[in-house]
Design brief:
By secondary structure, the chain is an alpha/beta fold.
């Protein structure tokens, strides 16, 4: 069973916010589906690192989630900054079950173990704003990351974040310290698009290997990261 990662799908099948209007996103959905079906088998696992749907509330995600359900593999979904539909994990899991979205799962304050590797993560937060309110959110996200990693138990742990935890010459120290505390050596993230992709850290910092997996950053092709 292989493990893949991709983020920032920005699906809008149930809303009127198409991404095709942006340079580089023309015809992205058929391209994404073709790549997905070529690479991913039913027994594989895909981590979606946030900004999955443009829906403003949970009920309006049905068409987007139905599209994901139609694709092979088990999908674990992180929260992104544009996932306005996000609510409590219990409500989301009930919604998925009630609608028959059996291959979709929520990665939030928990962990998923695949072939002895624990997949953990949280949204994260931008670290270039030092306002008190933002400091509180960053502390909360660090706590959620710690909770997810703690849920993993023993064995190798891989981390996934929506916001980049590192930039050239800077990092979200609160999050990086948690990753190091739990011995994480591999981390994937999204959020960066277009010209911002050039600033993505793609390599090792402080013993952790980082990779960007935003959809346009990897050519709308899920990245195989294990298996």
């Amino acid at each position: 069973m292989a493990i893949f990662a991709i983020g920032d799908l920005h699906l809008s099948l149930g809303s009127s916010k198409p991404m095709d209007i942006f340079p580089g996103w023309e015809g992205y959905l058929p391209k994404l589906e073709a790549n997905w079906r070529k690479l991913i088998a039913p027994g594989d696992t895909v981590v979606l690192v946030g900004d999955t749907s443009w829906a403003m509330n949970l009920k309006d995600t049905r068409e987007d989630f139905a599209f994901l359900q139609s694709l092979p593999g088990e999908k674990w979904i992180l929260k992104g900054n544009h996932d306005y539909w996000w609510t409590t994990r219990a409500k989301m899991e009930r919604f998925l079950a009630d609608n028959g979205f059996t291959s979709l799962h929520i990665l939030h304050n928990n962990a998923c173990t695949v072939d002895g590797i624990s997949l953990c993560g949280t949204r994260g937060w931008p670290f270039d704003d030092t306002a008190a309110q933002d400091a509180k959110v960053m502390a909360r996200e660090a706590g959620r990351l710690r909770m997810s990693l703690s849920a993993a138990g023993e064995g190798e742990k891989w981390a996934f974040l929506h916001y980049p935890p590192v930039y050239p010459g800077a990092c979200a120290r609160e999050l990086v310290d948690v990753l190091r505390e739990f011995g994480v050596t591999r981390c994937w993230y999204g959020h960066l698009h277009g010209k911002a992709i050039r600033f993505a850290v793609q390599g090792e910092q402080e013993g952790i290997q980082y990779r960007l997996v935003s959809a346009d950053g990897i050519g709308f092709c899920p990245m195989k990261i294990g298996g």
